[in-house]
TrEMBL record:
This is VWA domain containing CoxE-like protein. InterPro entries: UCP010256, Uncharacterised_CoxE, vWFA_dom_sf. The lineage of its organism: Bacteria, Bacillati, Actinomycetota, Acidimicrobiia, Acidimicrobiales.
Amino acid sequence: MKPEELITGFVELLRVRGLRVPVSSSQDLLGALAVVGIDDQERVRECARATLVKSQKDNELFDNVFREYFFGQHPDEEVPRQVTVGFDSQDAPEAEQDDDGQMQRVVRYSAVERLRSADLRSLEAAERREALRLIERFRFSPPLRRSYRFVKSRSVQRLDLSHTLRLSVATSGEPIRRRFLSKGLRSRRLLFLVDISGSMHAYAEGLLHFAWAARRALGDVHVFTLGTRLHNVSRALDVSDPDRAMAQVSSLIDDFAGGTRLGASLETFNIEHGARGVARGAIVVVFSDGWDRGDPQVMEEAMGRLSRLAKSILWVNPLAAATDYAPLARGMATALPYIDAFLPGESVRSFEHLARVICSEGELQ
């Protein structure tokens, strides 16, 4: 892995965890490392801290992400005192002796990076659990919208007449000191529709953990599963322990890894929940490979109605990561004209990208 790719991945993870890092800061870091080198772990850490961290309150977050990215460690784990930092290779030793004859651990830069980029379906059980832990630690910036209520503002949008008149009493009725109002900001609702059919079995767990992290961070998040029937699992995710939350979700679902009636499930959602306000003005994330055994006309009508209710529809398809993929599945081809963004969803890195897209979808026009 090249140093540029290494730093780019680290900066991306910092942004996902909630630290604002401008492009100029990452360029400064690359320039600093070109001078001091990357062989000394502490030197790399201090260069990164000096160029990327702008506030003292962000130091703890930076340290946690640094340990996670370069060492694959949770924040409460202790970093080894003797560490050699290097790049991954086939014949690289796991440990080597220093000048005093003591063994020191050799840490590879690419361990966590490889896990973030791996297809969830290809991971062993232990690797999958670690990938899910990475997803659970995502930090979300809430997508925002304008509210209907006005709040005090310095921008000249609407005159606060009553406040201005009160101030004019002190200036003989002349409105010299004017005050203004603007529409306030509120978090935009986020809606997940997760396909749990057999073809999505290897990936659905990842998005459910993603939805758990989003609901914990943002609050106004609703989660439904789509299989042979529709299930509302939002309340089941209101548990601080993600493993317990997934157990509660499993107890509610009796068609996990079964068949799929995607169009019919979307139609049921529109009738029972969407038109009543859950989808109105929301950012909708549909997680599915598009396989549907039902009537294409039902699928088309359901997607058309959902697109009219929602602010935007993001379709996340694990198969989209393949370079030769084409959306030829009947359900996928039917839904394509109604979606606003078509995204891959096969790895931790793709979920990180999804988190950024969700935030950008809430940006005010």
